[in-house]
Amino acid sequence: MFTIDAHLDLSMNAMEWNRDLRNTVFEIREREIGLSDKPDRAKGTVAFPELRKGNVGLVVATQIARYVAPNNPLPGWASPEQAWAQTQGQVAWYQAMEACGEMVQINDLASLEKHLALWSDTTIPNEQKAIGYILSLEGADSIVTVDHVAKAHEYGLRAIGPAHYGPGRYAQGTDATGGLGPHGRDLLKEMERLNIILDATHLCDDSFWEALDHFHGNIWASHNLCRSLVNHNRQFSDEQIKELINRGAVIGGALDAWMMVPNWVRGVSTPENMNCNLEVMLDHLDHICQIAGNANHIGIGSDLDGAFGKEQSPYDLETIADLQKIPDMLRKRGYSKEDIEKVMHGNWLRFLRNAWK
Ligand SMILES: [Zn+2]
């Protein structure tokens, strides 16, 4: 079934993990044997051949670069200008992948419909189809001034999550507290003017509520799970989920094990001993459906290879192609054919068609 994944850090993998995503997952792993600079070496799950194998024809793909003040222990750049330059390298990679026919940027209704027509043509093998990507920015620190938003919109940026981990220049993120401040509100105003989607993922509670109060455009949450199942500020409370549903949002289910099962200890827990499989993510999506009273607000935003690999992913997922196991799992849970299609792609498409009409 045609599948949309609303959160993949593809350019980060290419530029910081040095992965040529045109190779298979297994070729990339092979090349990383013996490397120990990152905990997920030789454990990646995402590459173009596996996206095609899994019918994942459209993704939301990120730019990502954090600014850190001198007292901030998180990894990041020493100035917003450096972070901006990093994201420009990432854009250059996406453009290089377009130039060789591997990817195609989807940035308006016409390009979306054209792309969907291509992927629904079963006479063309997936190997010959470019993977569509919608460009998103995870954490807005690299936006040097609010004027840079228009520059970014020009090269195709269509969604922004103002925060990532820790304190940010425009909003406070996961594990931080506090509101947006005047710069954050200006950022939201400019996003609204340019019809850029607000990604509510990673906003801390204070910034989340302030952002929703001040932003009147389209809101989604690209990769998020539920606080009532795994209690952490990175997850949404039922109250936040309710508000997102009221605002017409779609929430993408993530496949990062520590968000899926309680009491995960990084580097110690394993997917097997924590019983973390794809069904667990569906438990979270089910919970959102219970709150909504329908299946109209959930999708997939896997975050696979988002600085973790197989060691922190569901044990029944070898590569991203295994997202194709989900339709059957939903069927067994009693989801209708129509609802399964909504989860795999339909809800994101409804959202985009409405946002870009
Ligand atoms: Zn994230």
From TrEMBL:
Pfam families hit by this protein: Peptidase_M19
GO terms, molecular function: dipeptidase activity
Transcription regulation found in the keyword field: no
Gene3D superfamilies named among the record's database cross-references: Metal-dependent hydrolases
EC id: 3.4.13.-
UniProt xrefs under PROSITE patterns: RENAL_DIPEPTIDASE_2
Superkingdom of origin: Bacteria
Top EC category: hydrolase
Assigned keywords, A-Z: Dipeptidase, Hydrolase, Protease
Claim: Transcription is one of the keywords in the record: no
SUPFAM superfamilies: Metallo-dependent hydrolases (SSF51556)
Protein name per UniProt: Membrane dipeptidase
